[in-house]
């Protein structure tokens, strides 16, 4: 079995807009966290594409990636992910080709096929009612062709983009992208942080069907997990309630800014809502340093991940930084 200090760790950031806050403050907090993450030894810092959500500032994902890469020096920066059906593959090839030209050897391109929002917003983004994500494999193929060095012979070219070695990852919360990543021989990142039940079946599907490629000789799995670490168990449970409230708002279809933590969720959620939420977020890790270490090791034992990417939606920036610092300490990075 792998030990915690034998794998890499990364950060997934949705650039949360806290209640009473602003996108400007969110981006400053994002950059500050990325700078500390670089010092603490995290491998990647990924931003996620979401739209029409009052509590998430990373909708223009490529722009935020450039902002973070420009304010750091060594940490890899990328997308977790770009929702490819929302975009023309040529545009993404150009955007990430530009980022790679600016920050050579530091840019990752993680791709998903979900809308990253509700269906009405997806329709506004895609402008084509027939675009429902089913052509995701074809879009991935187009994008890879634009980035290929031989694309210089094509009439339509991605400049910057063509010939640049930008690592492409497929992201998923079900078996669809797992199967595609296996077929293409690409690294795969699974969203266990909100789709815990599907984790092991998707990872098994990917590993059992993996076909070696020029990119990878063997499967490479990164798994997402929510972690809320603090100096005491009570403090960890307290800061985790902001994310619980956020997830509850999504269940109710009332998205909002990230709310301050509360002493108890009793009276905020119903018993039915609590069951749904806890089932969706059951891979979340909450506790003090020792508890986080034990739970994280159990998660690693179960998933056999090659890398773990950590999401922590914390209201107070100081508590958010401390949570990631504790993770760095228990995993041997710091």
TrEMBL record:
Luciferase-like domain sequence ranges: 21-245
Entry-linked Gene3D superfamilies: Luciferase-like domain
Report the leader peptide range.
none
Q: Which InterPro entries match?
A: Bact_Lucif_Oxidored, CmoO-like, Luciferase-like_dom, Luciferase-like_sf
One example of the protein's molecular function in GO is: oxidoreductase activity, acting on paired donors, with incorporation or reduction of molecular oxygen
Q: What does UniProt give as GO cellular component?
A: cytosol
Entries under NCBIfam families matching the protein: oxido_grp_1
Q: Which family does it belong to?
A: To bacterial alkanal monooxygenase alpha and beta chains.
Instruction: Name the chain's protein.
Output: LLM class flavin-dependent oxidoreductase
